[in-house]
Design brief:
Low-confidence stretches: none
Radius of gyration: 42 Å
Shape: rod-shaped
Oligomer: single chain
CATH topology of the largest domain: f41 fragment of flagellin, N-terminal domain
Distance between the termini: 31 Å
Number of domains: 2
Order of helices and strands: HHHEEEEHEEEEEEEEEEEHHHH
CATH architecture of the largest domain: Up-down Bundle
Length: 408
Amino acid sequence: MIRISTDSVYQNAVTNFNNMQAEIANSINEVDTGIALSSPSVNPAAAAQVLVATQGSDVNTQYGVNGQDASGALNTQDGILSGVTNLLQSLESQVVEAGSGALSNTNRATMASQFTSSLNQLLSLANSEDSNGNYVFSGTTVGTQPYTATPNGAQYNGSQQTQMIQVDTAQQLPVNGVGSSIFGNITVSPNVYFGIANGNNTSTATISTGTLSGTGTVTGDNYSISFTSPTTYNVTDLSTGAVVSTANPYTSGGTIAIPGAQFTITDGTGANGPPATGDEFTVQPGNQNIFQVLTTLASALNQGVSTSGDQTNLATALAQANTSISASLGNVLDARDQIGNSLQQIQSLSTVDSTLNVSYQTTIGTLQDVNYAQAISQLSEEQFTYQAAQKAFASTSQLSLISMLPVT
């Protein structure tokens, strides 16, 4: 015989009712919130998949934000370079105008002022800041002003590396520029210094093209070699005004050195062949920046034309300026092409990011969201079962042996 105590019956009933109430409460919560996967314990495998998909979605969303930031920075940079493009194109026309033989020295001085004004405008554009106060063309050193004015134009102070931003799992894009590659790097002669004899020299001595010597540091500055006698000369850095060396002995065809480069001066033929006192030669690097170019041109125009030698010097300066401005414009257009390519990549990646985000959200929704038809049906079934169990327990709990006796 099995004995079931009254306490056990009631305790089991309470436990069963509590369990059914918990299931009903869980179903009601699912219907109210729309979330079936309320905790990892409900479905550990699905919870793990949701975590992976959520992390992927978060990373993908961050790439999208990075892309928008990069797009804004690149558009800012391109807007500035658009102004630089217009200014350089205007300068090309002005150089042609400055070569007119009809100009007086007063006219040339006026044009020199215009070139100086253009230099200052370019310097202002090169030192542009973005909306966050960061310099656009200083490379990774965004807090450092890219250019400072010097007697010979301007000097670059930024880094040679551009600031990068991650826009995809395996792709980074530059978000600012390196000023030296945009406003400098005017390659007239790669790794070469070119020498120019002053048009007022009285001798027929010639200067060779300079080449890198492999010793010392190439400064990129302009230099002058001025003869203090037919056998001695001084070397001066025209970019800084510093005297490099004095009373150097001259030998025809002998090596003349400047920091990082070397060249030769050779006697001409005849009585006026050797260099004379007062003769001067200038040495310019193959790579210059646009600020040096405009400063040199303004100086040549200010000097005026009094002799045929002056005319030769001015013609040489104008020809070099025309070539250098064209090269500088090429650098700017190359930079704008790269910006355009980057913006296209960002646009393509944005489309991919949107597709991936939809995929991630679909996966998360499939694993986590409630199937309302199924949830409501299950809730109805649970509530019906609970009510039936209540009625059944209420009926059976009132039964006893006494209640089975016939009434007399």
